[in-house]
Amino acid sequence: MSNKQWNYTDVYSNLYSKWKRERSSDVIQPLEYNFYTQIWDILNSIIQNSHEDVIERTIISRVSFLFENLKNLRWTKLNNYIIRDLNLETSLLTSQETEAIKILKGLNDWYRKLPNQIEQIPFLTSTALKSNLDSGKEKSRIISTNQFNEKVEVKFLKQLAQFLGPDLNSYGPFEKDTISILPKKLVQDILLPKNVVRIIE
What's the domain count of the chain? Predict the structure, then answer.
């Protein structure tokens, strides 16, 4: 066996030992920071310098298979760390995994905060309305939901982008000539003054 083939085989053996170690443990195992980059470089080198030799094709196939399996094993563990909010020592990770963890943590933090942010919407709205009342602003600007129960049929005279109504519901978007049934209060106070719709009698 040539020296080049021996080096490739040595790479396979090294990769196999890391894959076997990762598979046999529930916790993520340490990898060199540039490990993935090294393997990618080696694979590219093998492919570029390949002479369609049977041995070389076999080595490429085996190295690629192990490499993908090792990445998948570690990716599953990394996701579990993030989802369960466990401490993870970044010194165990490759450069690509370190960057991925930053993104995953950011997404997970946002996802965890989302329910609380949604729950805060009614509180913030009622607080804002109370503030308007306390400061002496016109009560007519504060629209109760029951005022939006009465509906009318309208036809849009022009295109209208999506907007938030005084009842805090989202409306639209609407195309020109669209016929829609909307709250009468919304139509009279907002849409008719802007000549956006006409009421269908």
Answer: 2
pTM reported for the whole predicted model:
0.49
Reading the chain (201 residues) residue by residue, the pLDDT tens digits are 333 444 667 888 888 999 999 999 888 899 998 888 888 887 777 777 766 667 677 777 888 888 889 988 988 888 888 777 777 787 888 888 888 877 777 766 666 665 555 444 444 444 444 454 444 444 444 344 455 578 888 999 988 887 777 766 778 888 888 888 888 888 888 888 888 899 887
In a domain, 28, yes or no: yes
Phi and psi angles of residue 88, each rounded to the nearest 5 degrees, phi first: -130, 125
Residues 157 and 84 in one domain: no
Q: How far is CA 123 from CA 40, 72, 144, 147, in A?
A: 53, 44, 15, 21
- Statement to judge: residues 11 and 97 lie in one domain: yes
